[in-house]
Amino acid sequence: MSVERRLTPRRKLQLGVMLETPTNGQPVAATLCNISEGGAYIETRAALSTSAPLIMAFQLAGTRLRNGLRLYARVIHRDDNGIGVAFLPMPEDMTRTLSDALSGYEAQQEAQL
Predict the structure, then answer these.
(1) Residues 6 or more apart from 25 whose CB is under 8 A from it?
(2) Cβ contacts of 74 within 8 Å, gap of 6 or more
(3) Which of helix, strand or coil describes residue 59?
(4) Cα separations (Å) of 90 from 23, 71, 72, 108, 110?
(5) pTM of the predicted structure, to 2 decimals
(6) d(C-alpha 74, C-alpha 84), whole Å
(7) Which end of the chain has fewer CB atoms within 10 angstroms, the N or the C?
């Protein structure tokens, strides 16, 4: 039995995301599968090693964010389908922006059901 170690709950979603790394100037398209205020799981075939830094850029429909989100993260694990990332420390207002955006996205998704 696995023990849940996350500090904040993950929200499931299927959303396109662009990954940028300092070592590769070309953004890589991937799929964001779940996200929390502390990290995310991303399906990708990109060759990213554990501890690799990256920037995740994505838009959440139904939010007030015109330019989307750009979150700094590092790879903490890799499997055959993708990577798990932990977000690097961010200012409290950015954490609040992420939380508000996820809540707005969820509300829009529920309204469509």
Answers:
(1) none
(2) 51, 52, 53, 54, 85, 86, 88
(3) coil
(4) 22, 9, 8, 26, 28
(5) 0.82
(6) 9
(7) N
CA distance 111 to 80: 34
The SS3 call for residue 88 is: coil
Q: Which of 81, 18, 86, 8 is nearest to 52 (CA)?
A: 86
Tokens 């903490």 appear where? 76
What are the residues facing 58 on neighbouring strands?
69
Q: Which residue has the tokens 């990577």?
A: 83
DSSP state of 61: T
40 close to 75: Cβ distance less than 8 angstroms = no
Closest to 58 measured CA to CA, from 15, 88, 12: 15
